[in-house]
Design brief:
globular; mainly alpha; about 70% helix; 25 helices; disordered C terminus
Amino acid sequence: MDALLCLSGRALSLLREWVGADPGCGVARALLAFATGDRWSDAVLKEQLVIAYRDAQAAGAREAGLVYGVYLHTHRQYRLAADHLVDHFARWPADETAGLLMGAFFSCGDLAYRTRGEELTVSQAALAGPDNWPWASWLAATRAEQGRSREAYALAERALELRPRSGVAAHALAHAGHELGTGGAGVGFLDDWLAADPDAVQSRHLNWHAALHSLACGDVQEARRRADTALAATDVGMRAATNWRLLLIGQSPARRSDLDQVRELLAAPGGTAEVFHTFNLALALAVEAATDDLDALATRCAADGRADYREVLAPVVRALAAVTAGRPSAAVELLTALGDRVERIGGVRVEREIVQDTLARALVDAGDPARAADLLRHRTTGRHHHSYEDHLLTPRAPRTPPAAATDRR
């Protein structure tokens, strides 16, 4: 459990050992399904969780409740899982194992549930006490997402003092560090932390954070190198988010995703299943200056039955298309009208911030650098390193859209 709570690279092998040594432990079997179920067929997943629930019922109500929560989460019944967790914590306050499922609140695609999840994290962390490192880690992540960066940083540091290998705390520190502009210091921490466990569950994601820290202090070469060496071909979203940021400040991108691959991902059943995933694929299209594809995707989103697609994603995608077509004023109009609704695009603050980056660049290119500077004032005055923002605010000569990349993987 310690390895799983730490998001250790050894967690999966230890889970398998646990199930092998105690096949009648329903919680162990359910946690293995939670960790690897996305690689199983629906039939295998259901079979394993039915066995887990049967065994957990024999162990007790708490164990059965945990397995049922895993069942709902792995079947993407996130609202039901979140509702179940509220009841579970009422009976078993600050249950650390149940804390692993808290992502259900943030996967609902509903801001009300996200807020409810944040409130629940705060209350459970208070019940657990300041010396409980898993809940201190989760609270740090919550405070970072709420924009309470200094508090998040302090909480993450405290959790890491208690348990230096807490992956959640390391991730929360990366988020808070981005908001504070820790730059090279953030890169150094992440490299040291990853060196102790290169196979940590979040290794590629934390390397992406390190790339953003490098961008923050103006080291674009290191950001590009990090994206090239640490991100896999399947990391389409993180690659696109890095490359679009580089392009916005007039820098050549790192290796890019294959355009046909992006089109296939969009056409697949899961391509538009979640708004944030679709947004990441739109960024990948923008990196390739695939304006026609972006226009088609925007039209598709505008006709979608889901409000977040119609009201939020569609104008964002149209704005990306406008930028790639050299029409910054149109992008400004679309993104300005969006306002605070951008939160409904999903993801977390550091991921949604790229929409603001795009608006700032469009404002500068449309001849309104003063308004762009005002938009980013909280970043340029509140971050220790903000070279990236300085580059965003620098007028540049019009440039042609990027040609198709020949160096991909």
